[in-house]
């Protein structure tokens, strides 16, 4: 049972905190994402994919319904974010000694852990993709 509570805590932490980014994006728009895409000569319509990684994915993870799919969406979002905006910071250290992409790395690690472990028994649905 402790493992299931651990998985629930992981799901709530990763999904809940990532959802804050999605709500911020909903309230403030996709202009920063579109700017990043334009800088890489990619169509700005791809910016709407952000909603899958910041809203749909976290909601699936939080409730434990297709949690592995939700975790995959979060992981893809973070990988794309690092590829588009953080490549120069991949080996950088901040002035206070932290890793420059530590927040992104923690979200990615958490999403990958959920993807590999599954949601546990304290989830809405059970099944292969849970």
Word description of this protein:
The chain is an all-alpha fold and 130 residues long. The protein has one domain. The protein is 66% helix and 0% strand. It has helices spanning 2-28, 31-39, 50-63, 67-86, 102-117. Helix 1 (2-28) packs antiparallel against helix 3 (50-63) and helix 1 crosses helix 5 (102-117). The longest helix is centred in the first third of the chain and has 27 residues, at 2-28. It starts with a helix and ends in a 13-residue tail after the last helix.
Proportion of strand residues: under 5%
What low-confidence regions span 5 or more consecutive residues with pLDDT below 50?
none
Shape: globular
Q: Quickly count the helices.
A: 5
Helix content: 55-70%
Tally of strands? 0
Rg is 15 Å
Quaternary structure annotation = single chain
Report the major sheet. Answer: none
Integer tally of domains: 1
Element order, helices and strands? Answer: HHHHH
Terminal Cα span:
17 Å
Broad structural category: mainly alpha
Mean pLDDT: 93
Please tag this protein with its features:
130 residues, mainly alpha, 5 helices, 66% helix, globular, membrane, DoxX, transmembrane, transmembrane helix
Summarize, please.
The chain is mostly helical and 130 residues long. The chain has helices spanning 2-28, 31-39, 50-63, 67-86, 102-117. Helix 1 crosses helix 5 (102-117).
How does the SSE layout of this entry go?
Layout: H1 2-28, H2 31-39, H3 50-63, H4 67-86, H5 102-117
Helix pairs in contact: 1-3, 1-5, 3-4, 4-5
